Amino acid sequence: MQSRTTTTVMLGIAQTLAWASSYYLPAVLAGAIGRDVGTSASTVFGAFSLALLVAAAIGPFAGRLIDRLGGRPVLIASSLVFAAGLAALSQARAPIHVFGAWAVMGLAMGSGLYEAAFATVVRLHGVDARRAITGITLFAGFASTVGWPLSTYLDGVVGWRGACLTWAALHLLIGLPLYALLPRAAPALPVSKADVDPRDGGSALSPAQQRRAAFLMAFVFAVAWFNSTAMAAHLPDLLRAAGATLAVAVGIAALVGPAQVAGRLIEFTLLKRAHPLLSARLAALAHPLGALCLGLFGTSAAVAFAMLHGLGNGILTIAIGTLPLLIFGAKGYGQRQGLLMVPARVVQAAAPFLFGLAVERWGVGSLWFSAMLGLAACLALAVMTADTKAAASVGEPATP
User: Which residues cross the membrane (predicted)?
Assistant: First the structure.
């Protein structure tokens, strides 16, 4: 049986490749693609938003397949689809081709990014998957660090079409073999939404509490992805609105990536024995606290804001994998994870546009909107904590 550490490393490397060649691709290549096919960069980002919507639609189906068959065949298929989508994008001659290629990429994103990797390790290791989930995010936290420079270099050497073909080849040469070496999981039938067994790691919540937990969790995940994507698209502009120069704003915004990795390291070390709901509550408060600092102290607190946002976002990414395992257990995890992430993928697709409108209207004041969302997510987590404590008081051993 393959060790959990080996599985984590293999999935972490493959996830770094998957994120670098999909989520982080448009930031570097959108302008070049738009110029070559006769459209704007914003249209290319519109095609990327379509991919996120496709990913939302395919996610529950992919999760259900992982529950039944294990993650290996689904992830192998995702590598092939990633390669096909990138190859199709490299041959685009018109905007409609770009949209078609990104729709194919959406199929791969919905079956080959974090949710699928998390479901795979849960399928293999059950309730002991928390550290594996954290380890995968530690690796993939460097996806932008690897992806942006490599895509920029390839664009300069072989053009954007060659860059897409190179990424497609890397999926076949690296991602596909890594997934093929994953251990097979014994087939298992999925369970119903209400079939949560505390012996399998789930909390002893009543059916009504389970439904409430599912809605609250979906809301928390949607807030996490909305704020993350909004900041990724608009943080430099926000900092400039607060009074920073362009060079300073870009430099400070670049701190978010390392801060995310630092947050995951904190979760992996200092918070490894903490209850996942406690870690999530602390993480949800980080963005509002950073926004408060920036609002009170202006650009002198810009670094603090970027670091706090990154720290919180890094830990919340782990919570997306661990909270469903905590509340519902390992059985049926993949399908539940896919369903819980549908609202997150939808708002993620809309986040750059919606938050862009807020920035145009209110400037740095738009941070109060994202901060209020963060506080609402923290409140939702507090309700989940109270429900879990109530369940623990009638027989569960652990309390948050």
Answer: 44-62, 74-92, 98-121, 133-154, 160-182, 213-235, 241-261, 282-305, 311-330, 365-384
